[in-house]
């Protein structure tokens, strides 16, 4: 494809995407197709001859879009957001056009150095300690997801402790987290060879707003030490998946330090909110952390995937993850004059992800990004008040950011304490295609989650979502 063909086809693609966004509200938010639908619509082998872009786009419209759940819809309130933006699009387009594989500095110096620049920018926006900046012993790196970030942190911590106590003690290493921590930590333990019985998920209670209580952690560590085990890794969360709870970083960090443990802070969702001065206090205590992660692709208008990880000691990552085969050796690397991010991650290859984050930060600016976050939090506050205004519903956890956890109150002596009732409410709403919600279970109760975070969501969409909920609740309660 020459430059003119690129121009022609790219214009068609941009028009298609622009029309998609223009008509986004017309689609059911949750895809309504049945499993296996696509194999019935597409040929069972690839075409022998080329087909036109227009024919392909026609198939996208007729066959692919029906099977898409529309994460960017203003009526999408499930899970946590996965933001896109024009700036993010343009950065992805440029990255795809360059199509570099930036594992080492020499493979494309800008791809490495732009990571260093933008991660320092964001660290300063978050007011992270200076130890996380590239000017010191630490620094930041873009991973694919928070799951990768916690894995590389865990591997660095594992190898650091094993260098001290000996590899034969792997079976004694203990990992701690709240039972509200993301399941990515469990997977990281499985990959890292941490014994399943050595993975401690400490119960977080409703009485503590589902935060990890420091005394519970201290007691667990004490028991393990007395049993001859080796506590070595603690993961705290700022904005848990279930309820957006915030673990007390100061107290937990001091416990980890006293026990000589690696302290990782996972702020995948809520980290973005902390660029606003009024929410920055949720990161108080991050100075005790060895590593800190947040997803720019969740709530900072940067297209997936773009997970930011900072460490205080980059050598801990490098010692755990570095390889240096002959075919990768070069003068700049051998002289230790540059950063090679291949040694800070699991895969060798790296996409030029920093371009899209750089473009988002420049095209929006800090003030607009802060106001974007504030708007979503205000919309969540409004929804929370709507829930509280209807005695048929109850809020199930404190609203800290833009997530509201609530449920339909079951009638007295209702079987299963409203589990089936609220599941049925969620299922009816999602099947309608008007909005999309997800759920969690808190203290044994089935809880609906409404997360405000889609870029196009406005007050009218939140109000419409509430009316949908009320109408379906009326129908369900009338049938009891």
UniProtKB/TrEMBL annotation:
<dbReference type="InterPro" id="IPR010977">
    <property type="entry name" value="Aromatic_deC"/>
</dbReference>
<dbReference type="InterPro" id="IPR015422">
    <property type="entry name" value="PyrdxlP-dep_Trfase_small"/>
</dbReference>
<keyword id="KW-0456">Lyase</keyword>
<dbReference type="GO" id="GO:0019752">
    <property type="term" value="P:carboxylic acid metabolic process"/>
</dbReference>
<dbReference type="GO" id="GO:0030170">
    <property type="term" value="F:pyridoxal phosphate binding"/>
</dbReference>
<keyword id="KW-0663">Pyridoxal phosphate</keyword>
<dbReference type="GO" id="GO:0009820">
    <property type="term" value="P:alkaloid metabolic process"/>
</dbReference>
<dbReference type="InterPro" id="IPR002129">
    <property type="entry name" value="PyrdxlP-dep_de-COase"/>
</dbReference>
<dbReference type="GO" id="GO:1901162">
    <property type="term" value="P:primary amino compound biosynthetic process"/>
</dbReference>
<feature type="modified residue" description="N6-(pyridoxal phosphate)lysine">
    <location>
        <position position="298"/>
    </location>
</feature>
<dbReference type="GO" id="GO:0006520">
    <property type="term" value="P:amino acid metabolic process"/>
</dbReference>
<comment type="similarity">
    <text>Belongs to the group II decarboxylase family.</text>
</comment>
<keyword id="KW-0017">Alkaloid metabolism</keyword>
<comment type="pathway">
    <text>Alkaloid biosynthesis.</text>
</comment>
<keyword id="KW-0210">Decarboxylase</keyword>
<dbReference type="GO" id="GO:0004837">
    <property type="term" value="F:tyrosine decarboxylase activity"/>
</dbReference>
<dbReference type="GO" id="GO:0046189">
    <property type="term" value="P:phenol-containing compound biosynthetic process"/>
</dbReference>
<keyword id="KW-0677">Repeat</keyword>
<dbReference type="InterPro" id="IPR021115">
    <property type="entry name" value="Pyridoxal-P_BS"/>
</dbReference>
<dbReference type="InterPro" id="IPR015424">
    <property type="entry name" value="PyrdxlP-dep_Trfase"/>
</dbReference>
<comment type="function">
    <text>Catalyzes the decarboxylation of L-tyrosine to tyramine, which is converted to norbelladine, a precursor to all Amaryllidaceae alkaloids such as galanthamine, lycorine and haemanthamine, and including haemanthamine- and crinamine-type alkaloids, promising anticancer agents.</text>
</comment>
<protein>
    <recommendedName>
        <fullName>Tyrosine decarboxylase</fullName>
    </recommendedName>
</protein>
<dbReference type="Pfam" id="PF00282">
    <property type="entry name" value="Pyridoxal_deC"/>
</dbReference>
<dbReference type="InterPro" id="IPR015421">
    <property type="entry name" value="PyrdxlP-dep_Trfase_major"/>
</dbReference>
<dbReference type="GO" id="GO:0005737">
    <property type="term" value="C:cytoplasm"/>
</dbReference>
């Amino acid at each position: 494809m020459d430059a003119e063909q690129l121009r022609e086809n790219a214009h068609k693609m941009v028009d298609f995407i622009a029309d998609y966004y223009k008509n986004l509200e017309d689609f059911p938010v949750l895809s309504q197709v049945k499993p296996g639908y696509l194999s019935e619509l597409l040929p069972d082998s690839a075409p022998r001859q080329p087909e036109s872009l227009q024919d392909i786009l026609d198939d996208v419209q007729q066959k692919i879009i029906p099977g898409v759940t529309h994460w960017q819809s203003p009526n999408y309130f499930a899970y946590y957001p996965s933001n896109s933006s024009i700036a993010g699009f343009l950065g992805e387009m440029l990255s795809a056009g360059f199509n570099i594989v930036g594992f080492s500095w020499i493979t494309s110096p800008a791809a490495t150095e732009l990571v260093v620049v933008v991660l320092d920018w964001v660290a300063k926006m978050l007011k992270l300690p200076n130890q996380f900046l590239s000017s010191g012993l630490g620094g930041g790196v873009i991973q694919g997801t928070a799951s990768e970030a916690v894995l590389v942190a865990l591997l660095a911590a594992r190898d650091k402790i094993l260098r001290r106590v000996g590899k034969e003690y792997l079976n004694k290493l203990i990992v701690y987290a709240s039972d509200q921590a993301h399941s990515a930590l469990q997977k990281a333990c499985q990959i890292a060879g941490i014994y399943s019985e050595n993975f401690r998920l400490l119960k977080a209670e409703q009485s503590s707003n589902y935060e990890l209580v420091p005394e519970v952690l201290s007691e667990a560590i004490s028991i393990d030490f007395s049993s001859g085990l080796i506590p070595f890794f603690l993961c705290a969360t700022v904005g848990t998946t279930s309820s957006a709870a915030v673990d007390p970083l100061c107290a937990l960090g001091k416990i980890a330090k006293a026990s000589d443990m690696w302290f990782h802070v996972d702020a995948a969702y809520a980290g973005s909110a902390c660029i606003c001065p009024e929410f920055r206090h949720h990161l108080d205590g991050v100075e005790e952390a060895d590593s800190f992660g947040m997803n720019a692709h969740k709530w900072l208008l940067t297209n997936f995937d773009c997970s930011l990880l900072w460490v205080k000691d980059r050598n801990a990552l490098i010692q755990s993850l570095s390889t240096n085969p002959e075919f990768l050796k070069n003068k700049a690397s051998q002289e230790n004059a540059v950063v090679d991010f291949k040694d800070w991650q699991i895969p060798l290859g790296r996409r030029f992800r920093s371009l899209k984050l750089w473009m988002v930060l420049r095209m929006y600016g800090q003030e607009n990004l802060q106001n974007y976050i504030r708007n979503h939090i205000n919309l969540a506050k409004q929804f929370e008040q709507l829930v509280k205004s209807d005695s048929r519903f109850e809020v199930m956890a404190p609203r800290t950011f833009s997530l509201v956890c609530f449920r339909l109150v079951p009638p007295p002596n209702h079987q299963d304490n409203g589990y089936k009732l609220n599941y049925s409410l969620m299922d009816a709403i999602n099947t309608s295609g008007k909005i999309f919600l997800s759920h969690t279970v808190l203290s044994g109760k089935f809880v609906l989650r409404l997360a405000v975070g889609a870029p196009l969501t406005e007050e009218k969409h939140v109000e419409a979502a509430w009316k949908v909920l009320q109408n379906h609740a009326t129908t369900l309660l009338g049938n009891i």
